[in-house]
Amino acid sequence: MAGIRKKPTAGGLWQAWYTDYTGKKRFFTMDSKRDAHQKAHVLEDEHRQIRDGLRPLPDAMERHKKRPFEEVVREYIAWGEAQGGRGGRPWGATHARMRKAHLAWWQERLGLLSLKDVHGTLPRVEKALRELQRRGRAGKTIMNYQEALAALCDWCKQRGYLDADPLEGLAPFDTTPKTIRRAMTPDEIAKLLKACAPHRRLLYQTALLSGLRRNELRNLSIEHLDQQDRGLHLDPAWTKNRKPGFQSLPGWLVEELDAFAQSDGPNPLYARFFNRAGTDRGDIPKHPLLYVPSHTARALDADLKAAGIPKHGPGGKIDFHASRTAYINLVLESQGITPKEAQELARHGTLELTMNVYGRVRQGRLAQIVEDVGEFLRPKAAEVVPGLYRQAVGAEQESATPLNNRELHSFKMVEAAGIEPASEIKSTKTSTCVVDL
């Protein structure tokens, strides 16, 4: 059992011990009593795991450290593509591709030949990340590079390939977006759909009425379209959350999608634009439901320019993913929608993501809401200032009721404003009262 002596040695060091996997007591000394105590318990736990078969023997760990870095990366990627995602599901194709690219970048940047070369790389890793920051890369992009190497090191430690995490203590970067996406207004949507080609109009309509992402739209085939239930069946192989789902669509859009796919509209477009050198057709289904350009951002920018809609403006920028933002906000602004229904239609795991990340506020809508609320408190015609004083019930009586201090003060304010009071108020023979606003 791990422990530490009550008093330091003659040289001021603290002696601690632990029991290794063979059952032998091992001793070591450190300057700090606290650090020695913590390290003794850590070593005790690691050797207990070795003894229980949860970690490899030290000599096996040394063999893993000598393995080529590329070989370890291939094993890690194979694990991820099989079960590395949420709930044991495989990674998505895009995530796997980016993880490979980031790890290849780190291998070249740090000169990693074997797995043991990652030890002592923390300062160089931090320097490389700072250089990315100086080059203007977004915080989220920098974190993608950082997470790729950090996740590999953590994976290796869990399997006993590394005895410690070489990147422990690596601080995160600020991932607050420099620019945000804005939700297109109904007027901008109408202009965009009028200015674009028919096949892109159908693509934009589907994106704006479903919130599906570009990769999800490209993987749709005619088999995913459900005319009876009016919607799309989503395959977990290419959805972001790796879960099957169903996305409802308006009936008229279902009919247009079916007509476009049945007429073989997408295939000639893919044959025309995806036969260029370097264009990847690997993610295009056999019977596509839509034509999704290889560069949706470039196509959308051209259509925005033709429609006279600025890409950057108050509230943020417009890119293809902004169609998802627009869809979610159209849902949120629908009458009678509940927060849970909005979350389900957005296919979000939490309501916070729907409301605080994708939810936007339109100033014009806020002004209209204030006007609507104001109608409840708006004074009636008989309650405005010129009619502030009106003849009370029983005014036909000859006796006059004297004005109290509040009524006299209000009467003087009316006169000061240059408003001629009602003739009944001037008569001392008429009983008057003040209408309280």
Offer a few descriptive terms:
437 residues, mainly alpha, hpI Integrase, Chain A, three-stranded antiparallel β-sheet, 18 helices, 8% strand, elongated, disordered C terminus
Taking the sheet with the most strands, its summary is: 3 strands, antiparallel
What is the number of helical segments per DSSP (H or I, 4+ residues)?
18
Principal-axes geometry comes out as elongated
Instruction: Indicate the percent of residues in helices.
Output: 40-55%
According to DSSP, the number of beta strands is 10
* Overall number of structural domains: 4
Distance between the termini: 81 Å
The chain-level structural class is: mainly alpha
Mean pLDDT: 85
Give the helices and strands as they follow along the chain. EEEHHHHHHHHHEEEHHHEEHHHHEHHE
The CATH topology of the largest domain: hpI Integrase, Chain A
The CATH architecture of the largest domain would be Orthogonal Bundle
Strand order in space, largest sheet: 1-2-3
Residues in β-strands, percent: 5-15%
Query: Regarding CATH, which class of the largest domain?
Result: Mainly Alpha
